[in-house]
Each structure stands twice: as structure tokens, then as C-alpha cells.
Amino acid sequence: MQIYWTKINKIIEETPEVKTFLLDCPKDFVWEEGSHTHLALEGFNAGEKPNRNLIRHMSISTLPYENSIGITTRIKEQCSEFKTILRNLTVGDEVALFKTHSNVPLKRTDKNVYLLSSGVGLATFRPLVLDYFERADNVNQIHSLNIDSSKDFLFTAIFESTPDKKFTSQFVDNRKDYYEEVKQLASDKDGLFYVVGSDEFLIQNIEVLREQGVNPEQIMLDKREQSLPDFLSADVSV
Q: Is residue 17 helix, strand or coil?
């Protein structure tokens, strides 16, 4: 396993609780839209076994042409040891990256694409939307629906409805409105539905989509292939 040590080159305060850490791109480090990586803090591999408290699985919120690896995450006042250390890092500090992989690249199969996310899960979809804006080949249109009860919505400059690019974006701040919208979107029986959020959020969305007649193969999750049946099985319940 290759470990890439790299430096923080910029820290963006997206909202009072959400920060984006922009990292230098190490030589030979490659990724695509929908990628995640393991972000590790200094000291994680100092002992005989890796200190898992200093490692987190994170989505990459940028594309390679932006020349920085973006890690966007929510850091609340009361948070884990990992987030506490991360919050106190500054430009020039080093972090490690390893095991980078994409479970949710943008499928170009001449269908409508629906991006369903909760809170900072929108960071996973930012690169998919940018990739679509760069090249819309074989994608009919994209609709993004994000729920964030904080009302501090992310990336609003990108997630703004742009009719001439066949892109629409919705933000809601409550579950009732969110799931009513999901039901409406699920009337497209041929669409592709990408879902990013907590496991509970995934399960609830899958239930609603399946109840509306959406097939499991139309639902894309940011999960390893071997774990997909745990979420997409017909008898899933919350």
C-alpha cells in the first residue's frame, strides 16, 4: 500500500461548521469524480498497528484539473479526537492519503441522473457536477436534491440551477419536504439515483425509491461492491 504524505495549501471555511482542506497533489496521485480516500493524521502509523482514531474515510470534493485535493468535512464544537486535531491544523501541516477509489463515477448511459445527499455529503457530488459541466456526453440531465437542517447550504455557486446546461438544484431543510421531493423524482422509472449520506439516510432513501418502483440497479451508493447487497436487498428496513 502506497502512502502519500502531502501538505495543506489552503483552508476554506465553507460554513461555520464545514471546512474544506485543499492539499497539494503528490506526484503519481490520481483520482476521478466520486472518489474517496483515507485521510490520516501525523502519528497514525507510529506504532506496530495503525492508530485508527487518526484515520478517516473521506470523499474528495475536487477534480484533478483544480490542482488541489479537496477534503470537505463538518467539524462540530463537540467532536472526535480526529476532528479536533484536524480543526487545529494550519497551512503547511502534513497529512497522509492512501487507498483512493471511486464507487460513484458519473455513469454516461443516456439517462437522467438524480443526486440525493444529506449535508456535507454534497461534497461527493461536487466533482460529478463539475465533470458534467465540462462534458455532458451521454447524460440527459442532472438534478441535485440536498437536505441540510442547518440551512447553511454548501457550494451554492456550483449547485445553482442552470437550465441551458440541463442542471437543476434543490436545497431543503426538513425531512418531510425532502422525501416528498424524492417521491416525485422517483416517478422517472428509468433514471439513475445516486445517494450519499449516513447509513440510516441511505436506507431511508432506498426504501422510498423502492416503494416507488425504482430497481436496485438504478441506485448508486458510495459503498464497496461487496457491501451493496446489505443496503439494496428487497427486505431492507429502517
A: coil
